[in-house]
Amino acid sequence: MPRLALYALAVCVLTVVAAVVSFVQGQWIGVVWVLMAGLSSNMAWFYFRRAKVERQRQRQQQTAGA
User: Fold this and answer.
1) Quick check: 64 pLDDT over 90?
2) What pTM does this model have?
3) Which helix (DSSP H) or strand (DSSP E) does residue 62 occupy?
4) How far from chain centre, in Å, is Cα 21?
5) DSSP string covering 26-54
6) Which helix (H) or strand (E) covers residue 15, if one does?
């Protein structure tokens, strides 16, 4: 698993928790946390997908070279 994807996923989980806590306390700053959660989840998806494509590319090169 790519390290950057795991970091982005951890940030996503933490921002979701921060958003929930903010909304429970009645603070509107939770909206910012929700936006950050969306951004970090997109980053995690991007890095996971990029690693998957890279693995497929390496497999194709190995089978073409053999």
Assistant:
1) no
2) 0.84
3) helix 30-65
4) 21
5) T-TTHHHHHHHHHHHHHHHHHHHHHHHHH
6) helix 3-24
